[in-house]
Amino acid sequence: MKKQRTFSGVSHRSSRKGGTVFLFLLTAAAFLLRLTVSFQLVKNDPAAATPALITDMKTYQTLALQILQGEFPSVFYYQPFYYAVFLPLVMLVSKSCYFLAVVQSLLGAGVVWFCGCSARLIAGRRSGYWSAFLCTFSAILIYFTPYYLLEILQAFWITLLFYLTLRAWHKPCWSNWLWCGLVLGCSILTRGNTWCFLPVLLGVMFLRKNIVSRKWNLAVSMVVLLVAILLPQLPFSIYNSFRTGELRGPSTAGNAVLAFGNNPEGAPAGLEIPYSATYELWLEHEKEISIPKRMWEWFKEEPAAFLEQQFQKFILFWDATDHPNNITELNALKSPLMQTFRFLPTGVIFVLALAGLMNGFYRGYFRKRKKFLLLWSFIFLYALSIIAFYILARFRLPILPLLCISGGIYLGSVFRKGPFKERFHRICMTAFAIFAVYGLCPLYAYVYEPIITSWTRPAGVNVEFEKPPYKWQNAPGGNYLLVCDHTSALKGGWIGMGDAMTMTKFFRIKKPLRTNRALLSIPVFGYGSFLLSVNGVEKSCSVNSNGSRILMEVPVQERNGVIRLDMNFSHSTGNWSIAMDSRRNYGRTILNDTPVPYESVMFLLIPVEK
To answer: What is the DSSP string of 128-145?
Structure first.
């Protein structure tokens, strides 16, 4: 009998008892590891049991308790599955956060199991072991487990969906498509970006239609899939539509999330608090001008700047840095086990996954083995769905198990004997992956970004407002232009500079002035006081320990589209500083009569003509 072959060249006998037992042991180890760390975190970290009010964790916990008591929100703002279905069902059994840790540890173990099973279907048992191993010992998959966050559940949905898609690839019957649709529907209801997987499922359906029996009806299978996807979402969509009086989906938060990383002040990664003035303006007038329309208008005005921001999000998705939100690695260190052992950081998994991608091109896996193409279709489409918004560690976490599969397939091939040429190529692939994950973003940020943004954004940030975003007594009416030459603090590159000094700051503006008055806004950090003189106007400024924002009305004049501010900081006391942004260099900041290779962090609000 002819053996069934995998692209690794070994017999594809995934049903052998030894293989299944070993994968089961890894899954059991994953459960015990997650459970132990979770119980330690619940005991030592207040964020696990009583999260802070400003976090999503507290929002989910509160909403779930209210729904359990029969109090439903006016509309479902966030995608509702986690807090409206999953948490209430868990709390029906027990409201203890220890019980939640048990349930989410089981989900984490399920992720490991389906990760190993999927890799085994693609590349054999050895790749399955390595994939499950990477998933078992991924640090972020471990320490996220006990918290009131949807990421572990979403990782389970995505890994299960991928496994079911592989099953549908082998046997494309309507029952398999039904299960794929239901799981995808629940995943979308958990976080809406997983609509991105629908094209893959439809692609598999069309590619595999030629191997099915005569009874198979492609149109019927497509209807089954789409109905199954929409079915879990339908009750929440009906509720939101009824409450708002217009056709709505199961969540109303999409535009707010879209606005974070797609406005001229937006940071490609991380969530800035307090929110930027542009974000607040866009959301305040969302009904008059939609967020997609705002983005389109900005793209038409500054296409290069818009595309550069999207490029940053693309490379940041593959970067080793985990941009925290709600919880950080400091939370993880409250577990003695996480302190003692160095589990696999996200960067290592990304390195192995990208090396697996390059090895796939080298070995021709995308052409020879469509299931490997299926894996990376899932990964790339998910990456694009996140890049469309902004990058957070929480957003990347659900796709990590599929990246573990790519890394496991790579490790499965690395430890096989081969000619020196293949070993050398693998070393080169790994080296390039290390550079892409650990070196590309820092290189771009501190070497190329200042140069590129001088071309893509020659005037810096110019955003027009219908009303002042800051308190300004006796502000002239009409429209305002908010101008700055720096980027978000979240991107890094800010350095502090204080004490007595003189500074000349130039601003380029895109619209003519309407008055000779402007409002200067300067974030100041530390504590102390100083006397600030701007274009001959003086103001005594004090800084508290939490930092301050200096607001000062100043006289301005425009010459050839440029405004000049002559500033003097004197009579300094305490330990205060203003920020300089090393990721911007327009040559428009002169410090103590010397041009400097960075730009001062300050805003100028200018009344302009419509």
So the answer is: HHHHHHHHHTBHHHHHTT
